[in-house]
Amino acid sequence: MYAVKLSLEPRFKRSITYNFTDDANIEDVFTDHAKQYEFADITWYPSKNTAVYRYDSRVPLNASGDGIYDFIGFQANSILISESVRGAEKLLENAKNVNGKCLTAATTLAFKKLTGNGLKNNGMLFTGYPVVGYQGKIQTSGSCLYSTKFDNSCAWDPRIKGLFFYESTAFFPASKFGDFIRDVRKLRDLKPENFCGIDNYNGILIRFIKASDAYLGQAEDSVVIDFNYYRANDASTPRLNQDVWEEVEQLAFFKYGAKPHWAKNRKLAFLDVQKKYPKFNQFIAAKQQLDPQSVFSSTWSDEILNGKESEKFDGCALEGQCICTEDKHCSPQNGYYCKQGLIYTDARVCRYS
Asked: Name one GO cellular component term (predicted).
C-alpha cells in the first residue's frame, strides 16, 4: 500500500501581459525573465525575428478582473476550416512553397498578437493588457474539448482530416541553454524562411522548471522547449525543410545532451537516454516493483527505456525511427539524401538536393 500526500493552497489571481518584441538577446535574458515572473515563458518565432515574453505573476485576490485563458490552438474550430488548413499545408509542402508557409506564419503571428493569444478580459473578448483572472481560469485552456456543436472539433481530432504534426520537447540544464539558442540562431540566419514551418504553429515555446529529486526529474534548474512541425500522412513522404528540424532535434539531444519529454518525441530522441539520469536505475527498480507483470509496458516503451537504436531500414529517418547514415535511410527517390548538418556538422539529416 502506498500513501500520497496532497497539498492545497488558497485561491489566488494572476495578471498576464504578452510583450511581442524583437528576438535579440533571448540567450542572455532568459534567466532574468524566469526569475522575475513566477509563471514566465517565452515564445520564439525565429523566421519572424520575434520573441513573445509572458509577464505573468500573482496579484491580490481583490484585484479587478475575471479573465480567462483560452489558448488559440486549443479552441474549437469548424471542421471545414481545420480540414482546409490541413489541405493548404499539404499543397504548400508538395509544391515546396516556402514563401507560402512564410505568408501563413506571418498571418498566424499577427492574429495571435491581435487576440492576446487567447486571453479574454472578463471571460468574453480580449480588450487589452493586463488580463487578470483567477488561477483556475488562467492556468487551464482547451475549450475545444467542451464544444457542443456537431460541426466543430479540436483541430487535431483524428476523426477528421485536420492537423497532423510532430512535437519535439527537450529539457536543458539552464547552464547550456544559451549556447543552444546561439546555434539555432546561426542555423536560422543562414535562411530564415526555412523556419516558417514551425512559426505556422507555435514557434519555439520556452518554459522553466525547478530542480527535482524525482528519479526522472531534472537534477538542476532547467529550461524546456517545445516545437511543432508538419507530419505527412504517409510515413514514407519526406517533408519540406526536413533537415532543419532534424538538425535542431540533434543539436538539442546530442550536442547539448537535453533530456526528452517521455510523451512528446520521436524515437531517436531517446538514444542513450538512460545515461542522462543519475537515478535511472532506481526508476527501473521502482517500475519493476510496482508493475512486476509489465501491465503498463509495451514493446515501444521497452525500446525507449533501453535507449537503443532500432535496426535501420529504408526511409527510417523520415519518421525519426533512426538517424540516417546512408541515403536509403532518407528518400533518395524523392531527392532527399543523408547529409551532415549545416551548423552542427556531427548531425546527419535528410536534405533535399
From this structure: membrane
